[in-house]
Design brief:
Order of helices and strands: HHH
Oligomer: single chain
Distance between the termini: 36 Å
Strand content: under 5%
Shape: elongated
Number of strands: 0
Helix content: over 70%
Length: 70
C-alpha cells in the first residue's frame, strides 16, 4: 500500500506540489493550516490505533482456536 502512495507522489512534479500548497494556503489561510494538520494527524493516529486493535483481536482469536490435526 505504501508503494502506491509513493507512485502517486512520484508522478507529481515540484511545480504541481507548490501549486497545491499555494491553493491550500489561499483556501484556509496561514493560521488554519496548523489546526488542519493537527486534525489530520489525529485522524491518522486513530485509524492506526483501530487497525492495530483489529489486528490484535484477529491474532488473539487465532491463538484461541485449536489447530486442526489431520
Amino acid at each position: 500500500m505504501n508503494h502506491q502512495v509513493f507512485l502517486l507522489l512520484g508522478s507529481l512534479g515540484t511545480t504541481e506540489i507548490i501549486l497545491i500548497l499555494l491553493i491550500v494556503v489561499l483556501m484556509f489561510g496561514g493560521k488554519k493550516i496548523p489546526e488542519l494538520m493537527r486534525g489530520l494527524g489525529k485522524g491518522i493516529r486513530e485509524f492506526n490505533d483501530a487497525k492495530n486493535n483489529v489486528k490484535r483481536e484477529i491474532e488473539e482469536s487465532a491463538k484461541d482456536q485449536p489447530a486442526d490435526k489431520k
